[in-house]
Amino acid sequence: MSQHKRFLPLVVLSLVAMMLAACVPPDIGPILIGCTSVQGTYTVYTPGLAPEAIEVRDNAGSVLGSALVATQPGGTTYTVTIPLNPPQPEGTVLSVVQVSTSAVLASGPCSGALATPVPSFFNPGDGRVDPRPGDRLAIYCNRPAGSVDVWGVDDKSKGFRLATFTFDDLAAAGLSGLYVTAEPNGTISLSMDEQGNLWAAWNGGQYGAEGQPGHGFAKGFRCN
Fold first, then answer.
1. Cβ(58)–Cβ(88) below 8 Å
2. Banded pLDDT at 16 (limits 50, 70, 90)
3. Are strands 159-166 and 187-192 parallel, antiparallel or unpaired?
């Protein structure tokens, strides 16, 4: 297993791609602005592995919640759910902001809880973060040890360790992230924003990992 490496070339590519795609704004689908959470779809056009940070802010500019969305070529769409802390009074005007460009993606008064509830998912009972059916990643937050363990799940639902990252290294790397090559199983990358949101993606290797959250090979999460 190789040492952690920074995404410096990917950051450069992402910056170049952002400039080239400046005339193509993000495509925003329906967004539900609740007073406890905000949920909607967000399509990005910037290729690369460095994730986009999205924040929910009040009129004073205070950040009430945030999330990371992986950037993929071809206008890939993701569903984003951002819990609000603290919950806001009914009618509070909130804005959903793309941090890299300061673009306001949506804005409006919040209304109660979300009309569409966030679905509940299965719990295998082993302490992994945000377990979901079809996951090919099992992630464990080791707060006392100051690290994050990332495990892969093979085609027969058997788990194996891909990589371990420390919170200190992730905080130092920021959104550019770190990656570990774990052949023959491909590469696992992990990044963290200033609010402590993390994004893990698994690409390549013998199990055909392709870094897509819809196929279980990527996950956004927090270590609370």
1. yes
2. very low
3. unpaired
Residue 78's H or E segment, with its range, is strand 76-83
Token pair for 13: 């590519």
Length of the chain: 224
CATH class of the region 22-109: mainly beta
The residues with which 2 forms a beta bridge, in sequence order, are none
Is the pLDDT at 77 greater than 70? The verdict is no
**95 vs 101: CA distance, rounded Å:** 14
DSSP string, 103-165: EEEEEEE--SS-SSPPPP----SS--SS--TT-SEEEEEETTTTEEEEEEE-TTS-EEEEEEE
Q: How far apart are CA 211 and CA 167, in angstroms?
A: 22
DSSP β-ladder status, 63-69 and 76-83: unpaired
pLDDT of residue 49: 47
> What is 31-54 written as a DSSP string?
EEE-SSEEEEEEEE---SSSPEEE
Instruction: Name which of 212, 224, 216 is nearest 69 in CA terms.
Output: 212
> What whole-number distance in Å separates Cα of residue 96 and Cα of residue 33?
9
The sign of the torsion formed by the CA atoms of 6, 12, 18, 21 equals negative
- Sequence ranges of the domains in the chain: 22-109, 120-222
Q: How far apart are CA 106 and CA 40, in angstroms?
A: 10
pLDDT digits (tens, 9 = 90+) for 161-194: 999 999 999 999 988 899 999 999 999 999 998 8
pLDDT of residue 78: 58
